[in-house]
Queue: 2 jobs
Job 1
Amino acid sequence: MTRTVYVNGAYLPENEAKISIFDRGFLMADGVYEVTSVLDGKLIDFAGHAKRLERSLSELDMPQPKCLPNLLEIHKELVRLNDIEEGLIYLQITRGAPDDRDFVFPDPETTTPTVVLFTQNKPGLASNPAAQKGIKVISIEDQRWGRRDIKTVQLLYPSMGKMMAKAAGVDDAWMVEEGAVTEGTSNNAYIVKNNTIITRHLGNEILHGITRAAVLRFAKEAQMKVEERSFTIAEAQDADEAFITSASTFVMPVVEIDGTTIGAGTPGSVAARLREIYIEESRKVAV
Ligand code: PMP
């Protein structure tokens, strides 16, 4: 089935959608994005993603697109047009396409942002069999730029990280800077030791995950102990459990780090419980 996508105000078949070769997203990775998951045909954590999007735009002095107040409606319309029960919606906003290539930001009066949204149908997102088995990761050096709190479309290093993981025969990579784990290539990283959930504190070094915020809130509500601080790969290898969170994987157990088995080598009870709570509670308030 041909997807219907959204480009600058129009709903079009994917093969008819076009953006300029002068678009700064293409030329300079001058763009931001968001990914929102869909369960039961409804959006999970939409308000959180919309809020982070506004922050990303503002941190980069990118003008707000005119359609910003209608984003919820646009997301819902794409879910409807593409008949998505379980899947993902990608939203990309760039600084637009000026007449010529130039490092200097174009005048926002004459160059308006490019807005693109598309869906990815993913039946079985909630019942992902990987969650029963857990995933394996390797550690790699974090070589990204310094403003990882802004969700930009500069995904080359994370993409290279996934390739390093693939070459090593594992599922993903955790990035390490100055001896401490920052995050996964496309997710936040956690360990559990003596029933305490440990995840890196917020800062410019990591993306402020929307799933992270929700999971930590649910963990605290369930009287679980949470510590937001840095940890090393050695500490992670010695932990009782490890897991990741993201909008596309929810809570996903990690059972091996750099060849070392974590805990019993099977998903731990804290990660399993958090996954269950997150999916259940998010479903209740999906829009
Ligand atoms: N860190 C990075 C680097 C990511 O790309 C993502 C996924 N977009 C996350 C963390 C998780 O964020 P979220 O829970 O908002 O999907």
Job 2
Amino acid sequence: MSRKKVVETLRWRRGRLELLDQTLLPDKIRYRPLKTYHEVSRGIRDMLVRGAPAIGVTAAFGMALAARSGARLRPAAFRRHMQKAGKVLASSRPTAVNLFWALQRMGRLMEENAHLAPAVMAEKMEAEALAVLSEDIEINRRMGRNGASFIEDGDVILTHCNAGALATAGYGTALGVVRAAWEQGKRISVLADETRPRCQGAKLTAWELSREGIPVTVIADTAAGSFLRRGKVQKVVVGADRIASNGDVVNKIGTYQVAVLARENKVPFYVAAPVSTIDFSLKSGDEIPIEERPPSEVTTMAGRRITPRGVAAFNPAFDVTPARFVTAIITEKGAVRKPFRRSISALRPRRR
Ligand code: MRU
């Protein structure tokens, strides 16, 4: 893989955050500079940046920006300012747990260093956000290596949504598995579900794989079952926005039907996600809040209305895939299988 073609999802430049505006892909590569935590929250909500790990890393920089802007406040006022920033950032999107994971990590750093002057704290917050970013890339590489062992030479891999470099700080989760297998010399190819309504598969997965020369073909979401039934797919690999402690997986709307169809056709269904995507506090996927996005994402395509005027539309952004449909969950600490309650609890971090 030619490294120079790997794109940066987000970057920190001279004290401000630059987000690759994913709403403009695949047509334009444009970075949006963000200077305040309010701008960061809007960037997440409006999906300039998206994908669970990328949202987490972005939120960490949101807290770093908040600390920077409050560095001259007195300690008590600084604390209130940071609490408000945490609340605003937490309200950006509800489903991907990595957002809350990153905010908790930044909040813990504040608590552990409560004695420090705000200006010093601001520097620490910036360093921590940079650590979250570089750790995410390293975690994805490890996850990729762990997952590549499931992929065989010649496999066609079906994926849904975009769980790639664009959904993380780099390399990707599900597409990290694809990249690692490709780097090992396996001749594989990817079938990308287009992923209506926002078409992350057609726009983003197809874009990032094709520019690296990894064979990718886009199919309509409605075609996935037919490809699975005709034996055209050897593995399904997807990412996750939140995983409950029983192994239920919440991911982009449409993942559930792919998982059921994979089971029906005896095709392994893998989920690649970092441990930070596991919500150990939840017993099952039914407890995970599912974001409802504007109906206009369904009633329009490429800015044009496609449904009759006045007809309603529902737009849940995610669904729950029950654990029984999941062959294995691939993490940076290794792959876990059923019974998930036991195997997932062994992944629980002791600290941080
Ligand atoms: O609404 P999005 O684009 O943020 O949804 C993204 C997904 O569902 C991804 O599959 C998931 O976050 C995993 S990303 C590594």
